[in-house]
């Protein structure tokens, strides 16, 4: 019995088989699926294919699921490309779904559960029948870089604003000191002028008395 269900992403080690033996290997960030590739779980296989789709530039969907007749657990999963975008608003959703089933992209991966509980890639179709979009991972990376640059510029602007405020405060303080100093000098000058006037008055008084 085949049913179509969706599974949450998971993580797990990727393994490969050689001569019937299982060998652990590190997942390369640019690695693509291949027949015989082994995963610890179906969730790990799904997560790997989703990550691969994001790098290449397409969106995944569940194509098929097969359950065990004994206990009902999933024993195989088919994952594929959702296909090119369909922007024909005049078409009904039912027609779009029917067209996708009839003309869907053939790119897919089929993973099956082995007796030891491992999941192995039994079929992998790489080619797509439509143009791929910009890599979702690269697009997200570009957004992250832009956000980082905006944050850096914002932080720099805050620093410059604080420096500007500090410089303005220092300038106002200096101007106040200059004003106070000028006022003090003006007061001294006025005192000197008054003294000179007093001396001049006394000198004139002495001249008149002669």
From TrEMBL:
Keyword Coiled coil on entry = yes
Looking at the record, which segments are called Disordered? 1-24
InterPro entries recorded for this chain? FAR1_DNA_bnd_dom
FAR1 domain ranges (all copies): 48-133
Q: Which residues form a coiled coil?
A: 150-209
**One matching Pfam family, short form?**
FAR1
Alphabetical keyword list:
Coiled coil
**Keyword field contains Phosphoprotein:** no
Name this protein carries in UniProt: FAR1 domain-containing protein
